[in-house]
Each structure stands twice: as structure tokens, then as C-alpha cells.
């Protein structure tokens, strides 16, 4: 590996590590797992850097690697994570300083939203997070998920409806 490749990897990490970590954290709800899979994502990217053809953006490529790693891990574990486990493992939702009642209400709302998201299938969670959090275009999401752009639109519509129903059950 020459110095240009090392510099490229360093730049990729500096530019996208936060994005990859945030995506994996919201996808898994597990901070240590997200941290571990972020490292693994960049390790896999390093191994595959020579094979990167540039057909997709680096962001899309990295998120696809991250998602595939998460799916493989989830298949191995095949278990659901409770909200209590998520909180024990460090998933904390930032709440600005305010009066105690407002803080409690925000925390309850944040927890209800997280429960609603975690109640969705991985497929629904993933597509919603890529669109809302990462603000990706449908064609970028299509590359990450390896589906057509029209399938992204249909799945996004359905995922939004399921999220709305889950939020309604949570009283949000």
C-alpha cells in the first residue's frame, strides 16, 4: 500500500466515519456494536479499495458495506434488542437543557420514537434512516440497498406508513 492509498483511506475515514457510525447506531440501537461495525466497515473498505470502481459515490459504497456487515451480524445473533438493553449499552438521545418537565417529555417522546423505529423491520428502518438521517436521494439508496429507484420509492412509502402506525401506537 503506497502513501497515496493511505492518504485516501485517511481522508475517507475522516470524511465518512461519523456518518457510518451514526447510520449503524440508528440502525442497531447499540453504541458498542455501531462502533465495532464502523471499524470493520473501514477495514473492509481498505481491503476492497483497489476494487472500488467509482460507479457509486464513496458515501454510498461505505454505507452499503456497513449495512451488509450489520445484516450479517443480525442474522448471526437473530435476536431483538429491548429499549432497556439499548439504554444500558449507551444509546442516549441528546436533550437540550430546559425545564425538568420539558426534558422528561422530550425523553419520553424520543424513547417512543426509538421504540417505534425498532419495532419496524430492518428493511423499513434502513430505508427510513437513509432517506431521513443521511438525506440520500432515491437513486443513492437504490445503490446501497441494491434495488431499483422505483422500488425505493414504494418501500419508502410503505415504511413511512408503518412508522406512522407504530408512532400512533406509541401515542406520538
Q: What would your notes on this structure say?
A:
The chain contains eight helices and no strands. It is an all-alpha fold and 172 residues long.
Quick recap:
This protein is mainly α and 172 residues long. It folds into two domains: 1-90, Rna Polymerase Sigma Factor, Chain: A (Orthogonal Bundle); 93-172, Orthogonal Bundle (Arc Repressor Mutant, subunit A). The protein has eight helices and no strands.
SSE topology:
Elements: H1 3-28, H2 31-48, H3 58-77, H4 83-88, H5 100-119, H6 122-132, H7 138-145, H8 149-170
CATH-defined fold name of the largest domain: Rna Polymerase Sigma Factor, Chain: A
Shape: globular
Query: What is the H level of CATH, i.e. the homologous superfamily of the largest domain?
Result: RNA polymerase sigma factor, region 2, helix turn helix motif
**Count of discrete structural domains:** 2
Structural class: mainly alpha
Residue-averaged pLDDT? 82
Distance separating the two termini: 52 Å
Helix content: over 70%
| SSE succession | HHHHHHHH
Beta strands, count: 0
Gyration radius (Cα, Å) is 17 Å
Query: What are the low-pLDDT stretches, counting only 5+ consecutive residues below 50?
Result: none
In the CATH scheme, the class of the largest domain would be Mainly Alpha
Q: What percentage of the residues does DSSP assign to strands (E)?
A: under 5%
Main sheet summary: none
CATH architecture designation of the largest domain: Orthogonal Bundle
Number of helices: 8
Amino acid at each position: 500500500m503506497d502513501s497515496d492509498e493511505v492518504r485516501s483511506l485517511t481522508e475517507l475515514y475522516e470524511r465518512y466515519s461519523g456518518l457510518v457510525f451514526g447510520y449503524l447506531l440508528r440502525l442497531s440501537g447499540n453504541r458498542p456494536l455501531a462502533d465495532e461495525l464502523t471499524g470493520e466497515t473501514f477495514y473492509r473498505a481498505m481491503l476492497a479499495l483497489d476494487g472500488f470502481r467509482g460507479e457509486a459515490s464513496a458515501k454510498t459504497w461505505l454505507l452499503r458495506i456497513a449495512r451488509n456487515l450489520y445484516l450479517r451480524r443480525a442474522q448471526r445473533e437473530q435476536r431483538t434488542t429491548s429499549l432497556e438493553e439499548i439504554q444500558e449499552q449507551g444509546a442516549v438521545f441528546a436533550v437540550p437543557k430546559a425545564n425538568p418537565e420539558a426534558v422528561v417529555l422530550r425523553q419520553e417522546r424520543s424513547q417512543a420514537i426509538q421504540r417505534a423505529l425498532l419495532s419496524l423491520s430492518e428493511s423499513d428502518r434502513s430505508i427510513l434512516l437513509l432517506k431521513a438521517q443521511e438525506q440520500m436521494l432515491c437513486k443513492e439508496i437504490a445503490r446501497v440497498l441494491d434495488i431499483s429507484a422505483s422500488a425505493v420509492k414504494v418501500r419508502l412509502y410503505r415504511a413511512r406508513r408503518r412508522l406512522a402506525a407504530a408512532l400512533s401506537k406509541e401515542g406520538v
